[in-house]
Write a structure and sequence with these properties.
Layout lengths: L3 E6 L3 H9 L5 E7 L3 E3 L4 H5 L5 H4 E3 H4 L6 E5 L4 E3 L4 E3 L4 E3 L2 E4 L4 E2 L17 H19 L4 H7 L1 E5 L3 H17 L13 E5 L11 H13 L2 E4 L4 E5 L2 E4 L2 E4 L2 E4 L3 E2 L17 E2 L5 E2 L2 E6 L4 E2 L1 E2 L2 E2 L4 H16 L17 E6 L2 E6 L2 E4 L1 H14 L3 H17 L14
Helix pairs in contact: 1-9, 5-6, 10-11
Length: 414
């Protein structure tokens, strides 16, 4: 009997989990991704902050399936999904499916102001991280040779827009780099004078945490030298800086961490989405009226007890295991038990040995929370070699405050 075909779009946490869980199953799996690597996104900010190299947090997708013969990996970008034909289209070919899993993640959203991306890059890919890293390191070099105080100040001003975990982690990392790592490296500037401003539109940072932990995180950031502004809305971003309300902040370094949206590819599914483009799925993660198509992870809006699940890696992985189990057992739509998310809590790091942790009503902050954060992230890395390398890098950084990946490779003298 011919094996049924499962097409998975996206090699992130959800897509990789499904493909691996279907090992030794009666399916032929085609995994399609527009990059050749699986990226451990929670540590991407550490590449941007020059603490880790890209190879520490990414692995070639093909290497993950070298010994799994029922998986074919395709490097390419899906341009259309046709549910009537049960095909997905790439630029030069098409793949038929019996079951389709869409696990494409999301990108940063500028809330209708896409022109801001030219001046305020987001952080979703390795390319994004390397661009931010290069610009950050180059800013200090430009400040070192600046001919005026105003130019020096502009180069040494960093504005991070968005007070979620990514924004908080980037702000804390830049604060530590400027006040510890680079402190003795320059002669004409004092890197401790670097101005770091974290802007959040809501009334507090880290909205997914309880208010007391949000406050502790803000206090910790402020002790590191970060200026935290809440209830502040960005009105304009351009090559000279950021307008916040009636104030204009001159800055050469702006980082966007404020919002997300799903790829327009989702529109070809011709199903209901929310304002961020997430597909509203049923309780088995399938599309309404189409039990053969599943959308998981950041691309889906799954409501549990009236609340949407967060766009974090554990959700995508648990949904991946759930869908793989449905497919393995060939469970028909009417017999599928609803997906249930096991919430393992929230973690966010603020800096070296500083983090906040919340699991239900259990909350801690400081060194122990950071230690849990470090162990959890090392455990989630995809292979032992990377776990060992990242652990070694962190121990070295913890002891010396020396980031080892401070290379500028694209400087063109401008």
């Amino acid at each position: 009997m011919e094996k049924k075909k499962v097409v998975i779009i996206g090699g992130g946490f959800g897509g990789l989990t499904i493909a691996k869980k279907l090992k030794n199953s009666n399916y032929r799996i085609t995994l399609i991704d527009k990059t050749n690597h699986h990226l451990f996104q929670p540590l991407l900010y550490q590449v941007a902050a020059a603490a880790l190299s890209p190879g520490d947090i990414a692995v070639p997708i093909r290497s993950e399936f070298s010994n799994q013969e029922n998986v074919e990996v395709i490097l390419g970008e899906v341009t259309e999904i046709n549910r009537e034909e049960k095909k997905v289209y790439l630029s030069n070919t098409a793949y038929e499916y019996d079951y389709l899993v869409v696990a494409i993640g999301n990108r940063h959203s500028y809330f209708g102001n896409d022109q801001w991306e030219n001046f305020a890059p987001g952080l979703k890919t390795i390319s994004d991280a390397l661009k931010i890293r290069e610009k950050m390191l180059l800013a200090f070099e430009k400040a070192e040779i600046a001919k005026s105080d105003s130019e020096k100040k502009r180069e040494m001003t960093f504005v991070i827009i968005g007070g979620g975990p990514t924004g908080v982690e980037i702000a804390g990392s830049i604060a530590e780099i400027s006040r510890e790592t680079l402190l003795k490296d320059f002669r004409n500037i004092n890197t401790a004078d670097t101005k770091i401003i974290l802007i959040e539109g809501m009334n507090r940072i880290l909205q997914s945490f309880d208010e007391d932990l949000s406050l502790k995180a803000q206090i910790t950031l402020e002790k590191l030298g970060v200026e935290v502004r809440v209830n502040s809305m960005v009105a304009e971003v351009n090559e000279n800086g950021v307008a916040v309300g009636d104030e204009f902040i001159e800055a050469s370094n702006i980082i966007w961490a404020a919002g997300n949206k799903v790829s327009p590819l989702i529109n070809s599914l011709k199903t209901e989405t929310d304002r961020n483009g997430r597909v509203i799925v049923e309780q088995d993660c399938s599309l309404p009226g189409d039990s053969d198509v599943f959308v998981i992870g950041d691309a889906s809006l799954f409501n549990e007890n009236g609340k949407p699940l967060p766009g974090v890696a554990p959700v995508a992985m648990q949904q991946g295991r759930y869908v793989a189990n449905l497919l393995k057992k060939s469970i028909p739509k009417e017999q599928r038990k609803p997906f249930r998310y096991f919430d393992k809590g929230n973690l966010a790091t603020i800096g070296r040995a500083k983090a906040v942790l919340q699991i239900g009503n259990f909350k801690i902050s400081g060194f122990f929370a950071w230690l849990v954060w470090a162990l959890v992230h090392i455990a989630f890395l995809v292979n032992f070699r990377k776990r060992y390398r990242v652990m070694t890098e962190w121990i070295w950084y913890y002891m010396t405050f020396k980031n080892g990946i401070r290379l500028i490779t694209k400087y063109n003298g401008e």
